[in-house]
């Protein structure tokens, strides 16, 4: 693999024990066995080394916080490319406890960028932002030029990290590329986000707390398509640019819920209408023409991706049962749904 015209031999992945980061590591490890991968992760409630079981060979792990300049400086030293997935990521948690979002998603990005600035070797910093930076759109699609208008402490902190990354390109000439993916789903997603939460609840015959009238809409991108998008950006992304990664597979939450119940053969009576999320964005939708111009396109259609994902959770009950037995999960349920 090449970045900036030169061969990539070592990638530092921050947040590699989380959902998208671990899928990225698995796929890169398989497709590019010659590349050395360094996973730098704090292991918050969302970090889980079991996501990486079986990954051996040119792979190492350092437990560390992206807010730690010393450790980040040491870890970045040998890297050609840094891909920053590390973040606090759940909107509902950001509503109850925003502090860690500001620290990790803004200050942590600053620490990484400073280390990148001092690194003699690194030639590309891929910052993983989100479609949520644009806020909600009733009709049409956001392009990369659309104004940023975040609604939640999560998305506002992601705007902070996104624009800080851009500022290091503009001010210091750092080779920064920004990815803004849509809602991801797939294997190894922590069971607090809509799809894995509802699948694991339904498997236990527990109620599915649907916010408001279930009419809010999201564009669902399979995690493997996100990974292929990030690989495209490593090879062809232009420094200083942001890129939307949309799937063009928009569904209402109610449609997603019905699809899950039908795949599992569970009754509609499990759906429980609950009070709406505060500041709930109605709809996210991206124009991904800029990514498509680089040759990327999402390949997994939602029906197939959801079927595979539901099957994965059914077959990996041990994986998610361990997580839902932990305090971090139970406290979240209590705070958010009771
Ligand atoms: P996740 O919550 O599953 O994983 C986050 C990982 O980051 C965990 O392994 C955690 O331990 C680690 N982490 C958190 N704080 C850290 C810190 N201070 N230092 C080091 N590591 C830390 O997240 P995800 O769903 O895999 O998302 C990855 C990235 O993609 C995030 O930046 C997120 O904002 C972005 N994103 C996610 C989605 C989605 O639908 N999941 C969509 C668009 C963008
Ligand atoms: P989520 O997976 O938290 O992602 P996002 O970052 O897009 O908010 O939620 C996806 C959608 O599902 C969002 O509109 C909120 C809704 N939702 C529920 O209705 N109930 C729930 O328990 C959760 C977690 C989400």
Kindly describe this structure.
The structure is a single chain. The protein has 338 residues and is of the alpha/beta class. The chain has one domain: 3-Layer(aba) Sandwich (Rossmann fold), CATH 3.40.50. 41% of the residues lie in helices and 17% in strands. The chain has a seven-stranded parallel beta sheet with strand order 5-4-3-6-7-8-12, with helices on both faces. Strands 9-11-13 form a three-stranded mixed beta sheet. Helix 8 (253-264) crosses helix 10 (302-315). The longest helix has 20 residues, at 99-118. The N and C termini lie far apart (49 Å). The mean pLDDT is 97. Bound molecules: nicotinamide-adenine-dinucleotide and thymidine-5'-diphosphate. Nicotinamide-adenine-dinucleotide binds at residues 14-15, 17-21, 41-44, 46-47, 65-67, 85-89, 104, 108, 128, 130, 158, 181, 183-184, 190.
Q: How would a crystallographer describe the biggest sheet? A: 7 strands, parallel
CATH architecture tag: 3-Layer(aba) Sandwich
What is the assigned CATH homologous superfamily? NAD(P)-binding Rossmann-like Domain
- Specify the structural class: alpha/beta
Order of helices and strands: EEEHEEHEHHEHEEHEEHEEHEHHHH
- Unreliable runs, pLDDT <50, ≥5 residues? none
Helical amount among residues, as a percent range?
40-55%
Number-wise, the strands total: 14
How many separate helices?
12
Sheet-strand content, in percent, reads 15-25%
Task: From the alpha carbons, calculate the radius of gyration and give it in angstroms.
Answer: 19 Å
Report strand order across the widest sheet: 5-4-3-6-7-8-12
First and last CA, distance: 49 Å
| CATH class bucket | Alpha Beta
Supply the number of structural domains. Answer: 1
Q: What is the mean pLDDT?
A: 97
**Which ligands accompany this protein?**
nicotinamide-adenine-dinucleotide, thymidine-5'-diphosphate
